[in-house]
UniProtKB/TrEMBL annotation:
Part of the signal recognition particle protein translocation system, which is composed of SRP and FtsY. Its EC number is 3.6.5.4. It comes from Dissulfurispira thermophila. It comes from the Bacteria. Composed of three domains: the N-terminal N domain, which is responsible for interactions with the ribosome, the central G domain, which binds GTP, and the C-terminal M domain, which binds the RNA and the signal sequence of the RNC. Residues 265-278 form the SRP54-type proteins GTP-binding domain. The gene is ffh. Signal peptide: none annotated. One of its GO terms (molecular function) is 7S RNA binding. It is an enzyme of class 3 (hydrolase). This is Signal recognition particle protein. PANTHER family: SIGNAL RECOGNITION PARTICLE 54K PROTEIN SRP54, SIGNAL RECOGNITION PARTICLE SUBUNIT SRP54. Keywords: Cytoplasm, GTP-binding, Hydrolase, Nucleotide-binding, Ribonucleoprotein, RNA-binding, Signal recognition particle. Involved in targeting and insertion of nascent membrane proteins into the cytoplasmic membrane. Binds to the hydrophobic signal sequence of the ribosome-nascent chain (RNC) as it emerges from the ribosomes. The SRP-RNC complex is then targeted to the cytoplasmic membrane where it interacts with the SRP receptor FtsY.
Length: 437
């Protein structure tokens, strides 16, 4: 996968630090290929790479990521941003019916998608109506009638009316009469964009004033998608995109291209020929698909959220050296507070799970413990042996706790140390790596 490739590129890199220009460029060469393979338009790819490059060079590599993963993360974030940060729904009119006009080339999936949307809205409890406004091909009317029957949604059509504008106006009137709250207009398409088609669509748009004009685009068209989307947007004006045939082996590059040239959100994707095969569009899913990396990103996310590995290793080293002091305990507590009880940390160390029952440190006790440790002198923190009776009294006073509290903490601390020693003995000199958590 792309991520593997990038990781091997970065393997040579020693250490972490900042992403260097040369390294980013090597990585982006791979990203560029991946995008082109996914059928993203080459101009779009060029701009995209340029943006990512600017964002990536000089950026600090997160402790929990490899440089390769870091670049992937930047690429992924940028992709999601370009695709639109969140899922965008179809806008509904405050004064029903909401009129939705479907446009697109012939075969892109307008008729199928119109029915899918109608069914989608019906399931939401609305009362949609379909309009057969593709008058060029009689078969197109029959196709919609058949689909409408399947999902039990009325289809407005006429085999006499020649003018699609007149037909659409009648349809809207009828919808009002019947109390339909959504009108979905299935328009004619062509194999290629021509002026006659654009004029027809523009007249319909002007006359019926739809709330949304949705461009239906075939995800398999790849590079051609850009010019098509551009023409529809410039000549008619679109409000959103529905990308069909995402069930095929299209990697979804068309999504990025179309979104990029129109600036309009992708609202749904079609995932099959069947009437229920439509899904809201989620940018991150498509980003993963374009990059061809599936779960890699969720792994990266996890790594980022997780406890800092370097810190864990430091602690591990201290444990092994038996030099775990109150100061270490305090440092760890600060980091641990978001992770839950202290025993969790210990129980994450292999073989320690059952041994920690005695050391119960409740969440609310963190504050107390920290206060006690803060009231110790540096010398006391680093050497518990000097903490005698009068020192304990002073620490209790200073921390607003009692001598019993201080005694208990020291006892817990000593038990921890004892266990760490046991644990060290048990593991011998073989050593091990702390698990990544
Ligand atoms: P129109 O000419 O734009 O109205 O396109 P149609 O709705 O007639 O669809 C053209 C072809 O694409 C039909 O065979 C549909 O079954 C098929 N189709 C539409 N949407 C999808 C989809 O999401 N996935 C798949 N696999 N096929 C689709
Ligand atoms: Mg059609």
């Amino acid at each position: 996968s792309l991520s593997d490739k990038l990781d091997s590129i970065f393997k040579k890199l020693k250490g972490r630090g900042l992403l260097k220009e040369e390294d980013v460029d090597v990585a982006l060469k791979e990203v560029r290929l991946a995008l082109l393979e996914a059928d993203v338009n080459f101009k779009v790819v060029k701009d995209f790479i340029q943006n990512v490059r600017e964002r990536a060079v000089g950026k600090e590599v997160l402790e929990s990521l490899s440089p390769g993963q870091q670049v992937i993360k930047i690429v992924h974030d940028e992709l999601c941003e370009l695709l639109g940060a969140t899922n965008q729904r179809i806008q509904l009119s405050p004064n029903p019916p909401t009129i939705i006009m479907m446009v697109g080339l012939q075969g892109s999936g307008k008729t199928t998608t119109s029915s899918k949307l109608a069914r989608f809205f019906k399931k939401e409890g609305r009362r949609p109506m379909l309009v057969a406004a593709d008058l060029k091909r009689p078969a197109a009317i029959d196709q919609l009638i058949t689909l409408g029957k399947q999902i039990d949604i009325p289809v407005f059509y006429s085999k006499e009316i020649q003018d699609p504008v007149v037909l659409c106006e009648s349809a809207v009137r009828q919808a009002r009469l019947e109390g339909r709250d959504i009108v979905i207009i299935d328009t004619a398409g062509r194999l290629h964009i021509d002026e006659e088609l654009m004029n027809e669509l523009l007249s319909i748009k002007t006359k019926v004033n739809p709330k949304e004009v949705l461009l239906v685009a075939d995800a398999m068209t790849g590079q051609d998608a850009v010019n098509m989307a551009k023409s529809f947007n410039e000549q008619i004006g679109i409000d959103g995109i529905i990308l069909t045939k995402m069930d095929g082996d299209a990697r979804g590059g068309a999504a990025l291209s179309i979104r990029n040239v129109t600036g309009r959100p992708i609202k749904f994707i079609g995932t099959g020929e069947k009437i229920d095969m439509i899904e809201p569009f989620y940018p991150d899913r498509i980003a993963n698909r374009i990059l061809g990396m599936g779960d890699v990103l969720s792994l990266i996310e996890q790594a980022q959220k997780s406890f800092d590995q370097k810190e864990a290793e430091k602690l591990h080293k201290r444990i092994m050296e038996e030099s775990f002091t109150f100061e270490d305990l305090r440092d760890q507590l600060k980091k641990l507070r978001s992770m839950g009880p202290l025993e969790n940390l210990i129980s994450m160390i292999p073989g320690m799970g059952k041994a920690v029952k005695d050391i119960k440190v409740e969440e609310k006790e963190f504050v107390k413990i920290e206060a006690i440790i803060n009231s110790m002198t540096k010398a006391e923190r680093n050497n518990h042996n000097i903490i005698n009776g009068s020192r304990r009294k002073r620490i209790a006073m200073g921390s607003g706790t009692t001598v019993t509290d201080v005694n208990r903490l020291i006892k817990q601390y000593l038990e921890m140390k004892k266990m760490m020693k046991m644990f060290k003995g048990g593991m011998g000199k073989k050593g091990f790596k702390l698990p990544k958590f």
